[in-house]
Here is the input.
Amino acid sequence: MAEEAPQPPQAQMRVLGQFIRDMSFENIMAQKGGGADVQPDVEVQVNLDAKKRSADHQYESSIKLNVTSKDKGGDTTLFVLEVDYVGIFHIENIPDDQIHPFLLIECPRMIFPFLRRIVSDITRDGGFPPLNLENIDFVSLYRNEIARRQAAEGAPKADA
Here is the structure.
């Protein structure tokens, strides 16, 4: 009988906490005294960030949203929402070459439902219909960012 190879340790992840690092909501329509007969057109920009914390096996992953709603009929901005939402994670047994994608794909996936709820509540409390964000494909977002970085590094540099 051949002995079985030892199994690698099981990957472990726990959410230790989550919080809003920074948030701003501007109801520009109300400031200008606009009416309620507008057709909103919403644009959402997503940025991800992650870093190692000082404690062993602790990492921070953040989702930064910039949401702008404009009137479809014109170029009038209705509201602007900026939020930086952070999750603190305890992560063990992830190989070093996989930690970066793990922090920018799996960790945001874990905290996104909470951020979605905050965005819905803030827009509703700000006087608009609740904004229910679509699911974000964090894998595609990660791949696009890697491709963008590689293209930027491979671009010919201008002569000085």
Q: What stands out?
A: DSSP finds three helices and four strands in the chain.
